[in-house]
Structures are given as C-alpha cells and as structure tokens.
Amino acid sequence: MASLIIDADDFDERLGQLAGSFRRTVAREMLEAGAKVLVQEDQAEIIRRSHVRTGDMLKSVKETEVRDGLEGAYIYVYAQGEDRRGVRNEMKNQIINQGYWRKKGQRKVRKDAYVARVQKSAEPRVREAMEAAFEKAQQAAGLGGK
Questions:
Q1: What mean pLDDT value characterizes the chain?
Q2: In angstroms, how far apart are the furthest CA atoms of the chain?
Q3: Residues 68-122: pLDDT tens digits?
Q4: Residue 146: pLDDT above 80?
Q5: Distance from C-alpha of 35 to C-alpha of 81, rounded to nearest angstrom
Q6: Alpha-carbon distance 73 to 31, whole Å?
Q7: What DSSP letter does each residue of the chain carry, written as one string?
Q8: Whole-angstrom Cα distance, residue 81 to residue 5?
Q9: pLDDT at 3
C-alpha cells in the first residue's frame, strides 16, 4: 500500500484555533474529502493505464474509515477485498505496481509504478478538496472563511 502524505502545517495551525471536538470533526471531514479525490484519481489512472480486465480491482479501490493514530487522524485508500476468483485486489495492485518475474521467464508482469504517478498528480486536487471541506465547515459553524 502506498501512502500520500499531505504537509498539513498550514491546516494544523488553523485547526488549532478550533475547539477540540469540532477540530476532530473538521479534520475527519477534510480527510474524507481528500480521500474521495484520491479514489477518483486512482480509478482513472487504472483505466488510463489499461489495468482493467474484469473491473473487480477497479471497483474495489475505496477509502477506509478515518482512524486515529499517534500523530493524528489518517485514512487509507487502496484496492480492497478479493476478485471473483478469490485473488486479493491489493496483491494484484502491488504486482502491477512493482512487477513480477518467475524464475524461468515463463511469466512476467512489467513494472508500472502508476501509484507514484497518481500520488504526485492527485496531491494538488486532494489539497484543494481538503481546503474546501475546511472552509465549508468553518462557514457552517459561523466562523467565517479566509
């Protein structure tokens, strides 16, 4: 599973000005908004790179629930579950991303590190979605925007 880490120093400063439970709610909404964008980008790149046979892996790219960790809240976006033959979608995604070779050259899957491209191209849109969620929550609470 790859990771996209958004430098959230500017968000941290602005979130720090909010009350505790409201801050947690806004942070979760921001993560969910960013994850939705990342799911769309990931699915679009899978289609663009022609990594679709049955569509099982494509449909399985989803975000998890927001979780709390030592350094704050986080969310995962990855190909979840199994396809119709019982093969884990995350394993198929990893094989495509890293490549696969058998000893005698009988079978190979060329490496296509599309996940890194998705992360790089999606970061501005993820940041925009997170910013929009922050502004929306601020306005809904009557705290005003920028």
A1: 81
A2: 66
A3: 888 778 899 988 999 888 989 888 888 888 777 666 656 677 777 788 888 888 9
A4: no
A5: 18
A6: 8
A7: --------HHHHHHHTTS-HHHHHHHHHHHHHHHHHHHHHHHHHHHHHTT--SSSHHHHHEEE---EEETTEEE--EEE-SB-TTS-BHHHHHHHHHH-EE-TTSS-EE----HHHHHHHHHHHHHHHHHHHHHHHHHHHTT----
A8: 24
A9: 58
Cα(76)–Cα(73) distance, integer angstroms = 11
Q: Which residue has the tokens 């094989």?
A: 95
pTM value is 0.78
Q: Comparing 8 with 14, which gets the higher pLDDT?
A: 14
**What is the structure's pLDDT at 62?**
92
Q: What is the 3-state secondary structure (H, E, C) of 76-109?
A: CEEECCECCCCCEHHHHHHHHHHCEECCCCCCEE
Alpha-carbon distances, residue 59 vs 47, 54, 79, 85, 126 (angstroms): 11, 10, 8, 15, 20
Contact (Cβ atoms closer than 8 angstroms) between residue 99 and residue 115: no
* Residue that the structure tokens 């990594």 belong to: 51
Contacts of 27 (CB under 8 A, 6+ apart): 15, 72, 73
